[in-house]
């Protein structure tokens, strides 16, 4: 366990999950990572499992990694310290550039997933893809359903509650 955060139950502190833009980390089959800003996400129970559902456009490099790379992702809610990373992760593509280096983002190895989480996140979730589908008429996005294998909250928000 990293000392700046603690493991939590998947639905703990979801008030910090709903609303803000997250950073999603994904990985290709050779272990190369990418990070992308992601606003469209839901958390809740499906098939008796805790699930994070995400909407990703097929035009994103992230989409290629989720479909052709490692079938896992991590969702990371940025703290103030790394909030400005969203400008980079949401406007540049991992096809062209290493966004971790550009946005000064550091990773923490996954405990249940090959894909790492991001340091300085308020909340982080390690997920494995269990289902996917088109999103229909709402937008040309693809929905990925990720079973939450492990969830973490930063000491920053844990200490606020206690
Ligand atoms: C605030 C913000 C939220 C975003 N949310 C989403 C989203 O939910 N789904 C999506 O497919 N793209 C979203 N994007 C767009 C991608 O982050 C953007 O196109 C990114 O450059 C794609 O990176 P990639 O090609 O490395 O995957 C968002 C962008 C911003 C700035």
Give the topology.
Blueprint: E1 5-8, E2 22-27, E3 33-38, E4 41-46, E5 49-56, H1 61-68, E6 72-78, H2 85-89, H3 99-103, E7 107-108, E8 117-118, E9 121-134, E10 142-154, H4 155-161
Antiparallel strand pairs: 1-10, 2-3, 2-6, 4-5, 5-10, 6-9, 7-8, 9-10
Bound molecules: flavin mononucleotide.
Flavin mononucleotide binds next to strand 3, strand 5 and helix 1.
Classify the fold: give the CATH topology: Pnp Oxidase, Chain A
Q: Portion of residues in helices?
A: 10-25%
CATH level 1 name: Mainly Beta
In total, the number of domains comes to: 1
- Shape assignment: globular
The chain-level structural class is alpha+beta
The distinct bound ligands, ions and cofactors come out as: flavin mononucleotide
User: What is the radius of gyration computed over CA atoms, rounded to a whole number of angstroms?
Assistant: 15 Å
Structure summary, number of beta strands: 10
String of helices and strands:
EEEEEHEHHEEEEH
CATH superfamily: Electron Transport, Fmn-binding Protein, Chain A
Average pLDDT, all residues: 96
Largest sheet: 8 strands, antiparallel
Q: Work out the helix count.
A: 4
Secondary-structure arrangement, i.e. CATH architecture: Roll
Question: In whole angstroms, how far apart are the ends?
Answer: 20 Å
State which percent range the strand residues make up: 35-45%
